[in-house]
Amino acid sequence: MAVGTGLALGELVAGLVSPSLSPVTAVGGAVIDVVPPGVKDWAIALFGTGDKMALLTGMGLLIAALAAVSGIVELRRRFAGAAIIAIFGVVGLVAVLGRTELTVIAVPVPLLAALVGMVLLRWLVRRLGEWPAEAGPPPAGPGPEAQLPSRSAQPPSRRRFFQALGGTAALAVAAGALAATFRGAAAVVSELRSKLALPAPASPAPPIPAGAEVRLESVGPLVTPNRDFYRIDTALRVPVVEPGQWTLKVTGLVEKEVSLDFAALLAKPLIERHITIACVSNEVGGDLIGNARWLGWPVRELLALAGPRDGADMVLSRSTDGWTAGTPLEVLTDSRDALLAVGMNGEPLPLEHGFPVRLVVPGLYGYVSATKWVTGLKVTRFADDVGYWTPRGWSERGPIKTSSRIDVPRDRRPVGAGTVAFGGVAWAQHTGIGRVELRVNRGAWQQAELAAGISKDTWYQWKLELPLTPGQYEVQVRATDLNGAAQVEDRAAVAPSGATGFHTVRVDVKS
């Protein structure tokens, strides 16, 4: 109870003075930074976009266990439990000092939380210590009435202890509720976002072609709604960035350093494009991929103002929370629509998707390109700098691999005999899909009906109707890009450069 109250008060104070950084998020971020890539892959495969909640839950259970230990040892030896809580505070302080979002005012917060926990622990233990001393020996005689004193006979110290415990619990609940609901700066930024009017694009997104959606039940929408768009990043708490204070700096191997604020960015000739982005942790058949209509300014135009020097081959983008991605320079300067995005599906970026500004780059996995809350672009070389995930075992450049997915029917779901409709999506961003095929029980490939794609930078929907009699069937899908290259059949894990293999479903056809 003492540790929980101190933690809750610490989170509340952090919410008021340091919205982007608290002891809990600092420790959680440090854990994310040091875990091996295999653990990260396992967590995403098991929990998907709920990986952060799983981490926080695990941290909560570990803290609760250590707090229980501190209470037990404090009761037996004075200041021993308080020393454990002090270690909590030191760990939190070290974690806070190691975060990029660090501000001077955030430094004392973990120490304050630990101090509150230590004081409450000593107070509660003293109250508990008074109880047995005042209770006296139990009454003699047989029967249940001899086991417990009557309510009126209970010692005042017992009542004082439970009153203290109840008061501490009430304080913890109140602080936790306020910390969860009142995030001063976050509330301000959310309000600013809701009132932000994005400019009309100088180059609107081309209309979605007729027939681009197969309109098959259980095949998702061609354009992913913001609320359903996957989110994979290392931020336990969404960074809070006020648009009026946002600045992007281009530095490094450039002829001229460039600084850009949000108002200047909105005044640029923005373009709007549909672009599909994907996470490198997306398993074969997975859903860590989405398609949206993005509004932004081409990165190549910003880099042209800076003038990259000869020998530069990488741009290291940096988020406000310190996360980095190393993107090939040629990808950001060629004709593709790599964007400094400010809008998503007709509205300002959601806070969790990078508000006010993020990078969106067609053809590359997000870990080397999709920097949210972006604040810096350093023109450099792969030989000199690395992004966040590269030294953790992931490949350097991260091109998205051609892949496809069966969305309907679902794996191992029974269907009725007769004509069975299969449908799904296929993608080869910045190359485009030329053909999608299915095969049943490892037989001949049969070409599916491929819907008109929005562009080569988005996924394509497809469908195929097959006559199936009662029985068990294994159905696989493969895609071929517009260059004639088929997706790789050999199964490979997501690390180090993205999963490969044919998505396979087992279909139980009933009579």
Instruction: Work out the strand percent.
Output: 15-25%
What percent of residues adopt helix (DSSP H or I)? 25-40%
- Along the chain, the helix and strand elements come as HHHHHHHHEEHEEHEEHEEEEEEEEEEEEE
Poorly predicted runs: 143-149
Question: Which helices and strands appear, and what pairs or packs with what?
Answer:
Blueprint: H1 2-17, H2 23-34, H3 37-47, H4 51-76, H5 80-97, H6 108-135, H7 156-181, H8 184-195, E1 247-252, E2 258-261, H9 262-266, E3 271-278, E4 289-298, H10 299-306, E5 314-319, E6 324-328, H11 329-333, E7 339-344, E8 347-348, E9 358-360, E10 374-380, E11 403-408, E12 414-416, E13 418-427, E14 433-440, E15 446-447, E16 449-450, E17 460-468, E18 471-481, E19 503-510
Parallel strand pairs: 1-10, 12-19
Antiparallel strand pairs: 1-2, 3-4, 4-7, 5-6, 5-10, 7-8, 7-9, 11-13, 13-17, 14-15, 14-18, 16-17, 18-19
Helix pairs in contact: 1-6, 1-7, 2-5, 4-5, 5-6, 6-7
Name some characteristics of this structure:
single chain; 511 residues; alpha+beta; Sulfite Oxidase, Chain A, domain 2; Immunoglobulin-like; 3 domains; five-stranded mixed β-sheet; five-stranded antiparallel β-sheet; globular
Question: What can you see in these coordinates?
Answer:
It is a single chain. With 511 residues, the chain is of the alpha+beta class. It has three domains: 2-182, no CATH class; 226-392, Alpha-Beta Complex (Sulfite Oxidase, Chain A, domain 2); 403-510, Immunoglobulin-like (Sandwich). The protein has eleven helices and 19 strands. It has helices at 2-17, 23-34, 37-47, 51-76, 80-97, 108-135, 156-181, 184-195, 262-266, 299-306, 329-333, and strands spanning 247-252, 258-261, 271-278, 289-298, 314-319, 324-328, 339-344, 347-348, 358-360, 374-380, 403-408, 414-416, 418-427, 433-440, 446-447, 449-450, 460-468, 471-481, 503-510. It has a five-stranded mixed beta sheet. Strands 3, 4, 7, 8 and 9 form a five-stranded antiparallel beta sheet that branches. A hairpin with a 2-residue loop joins strand 7 (339-344) and strand 8. Helix 1 packs antiparallel against helix 6.
